[in-house]
Write a structure and sequence with these properties.
Blueprint lengths: L1 E3 L1 H7 L6 E8 L20 E6 L2 E7 L4 H10 L6 E5 L5 H4 L14 E6 L7 H8 L15 E6 L5 E3 L3 E7 L7 E7 L2 E6 L9 H11 L4 E5 L18 H10 L4 E5 L7 H10 L9 E4 L5 E5 L1
Parallel strand pairs: 4-5, 5-6, 6-7, 11-12, 12-13, 13-14
Antiparallel strand pairs: 1-15, 2-3, 2-15, 3-4, 8-9, 9-10, 10-11
């Protein structure tokens, strides 16, 4: 298992092993922060992609500003693409990239967009609101790809016999979920918004069961134990709480994400260094970095 840059990925693609690549297109929370102080960890908001030797379709989670970079990369391809996009919730930092995702405007592309209902609004209703004239110059009719708007119910789903998706409600304002992807015998839990500290005991147990033994856990760690008391109820966890929980649950690889807009590179580098006492509990642990790819081979 390794963090890889593009050159290394190209050289390894044809080695004959099964593999899963986890690509972090956006790891920032709340609002994009395109500043020089964030060059290392990145300033784009939430977007995460899963690739695998088991399937060719696109598998994407969240549509923050990070999805724009993914779309720009895909727009250079001559082939048409199909895929599925799962949105954890509809706060701006998880949907603001939808109107700017170039593959939605390419004829022949095909996507299903999955969201849970928000205040009785369906997936299509929400996207239409995002692209209403008061917010954006064109509406959803400008999309030339085939878009299937799926209002989720939380029932586990299996796709192409290649991967399964499960969901569980998070402790976060709005109808927010975390997702679990199962590929073969590997499991990846993506949970960018979750205030574990305020969940009920019943909900905590459900979360623990959902995360237990995950090969990879990507979890909200926007706060510290020092900053958390003044942000209680805002929907985010202290990183110290998350890392202790993950160690207890035998998580193999942990990525701490959804960085605060105020957490610049110097702050996040110091937090990464503070992980040293915990490294013995994991195969790999770090604060997530935009544009990095984590590979599992098996």
């Amino acid at each position: 298992m390794a963090i890889l840059k593009n050159e290394a990925l190209i050289s390894m693609k044809n080695k004959g092993k099964n593999w899963i690549d986890l690509i972090f297109w956006g790891v920032r929370g709340s609002i994009a922060t395109p500043r020089k102080e964030n060059i290392v960890f990145g300033g784009n908001t939430s977007c995460f992609q899963v690739k695998s030797s088991f399937f060719n379709d696109l598998l994407i989670f969240d549509c923050g500003s990070g999805i724009v970079s993914l779309g720009n990369e895909l727009s250079n391809e001559e082939i048409t693409r199909k895929g599925r996009i799962f949105v954890t919730h509809t706060h701006w930092d998880h949907i603001q990239g939808i109107p700017f995702f170039k593959p939605f405007y390419k004829p022949g592309n095909s996507f299903s967009l999955h969201m849970f209902p928000q205040m009785e609004k369906s997936c299509r209703d929400i996207v239409k609101m995002v692209m209403a004239p008061v917010f954006f110059p064109v509406n959803v009719d400008a999309f030339q790809a085939e878009i299937d708007y799926i209002t989720e119910t939380g029932i586990p789903s299996e796709f192409n016999d290649a991967y399964q998706i499960e969901s569980l409600h998070s402790a976060h304002p709005g109808n927010t979920v975390m997702y679990k992807v199962r590929i073969g015998d590997k499991s990846i839990v993506y949970c960018p918004d979750n205030e574990y500290e305020i969940a009920s005991e019943e909900q905590k147990q459900l979360m623990r069961n959902f995360m237990r033994g995950a090969d990879v856990l990507i979890h909200d760690s926007q706060e510290t134990r020092e900053s958390y008391p003044s942000k209680k109820g805002w929907g985010h966890s202290a990183w110290e709480t998350v890392i202790e929980l993950a160690a207890e649950l035998d998580v193999k690889n942990l990525f701490l994400t959804h960085h605060s807009p105020d957490s610049h590179d110097e702050i996040l580098t110091a937090r990464n260094n503070a992980l040293e006492p915990y490294r013995k509990h994991f195969n790999h642990v770090q604060f997530a970095i935009e544009a990095e790819t984590f590979r599992m081979e098996f």
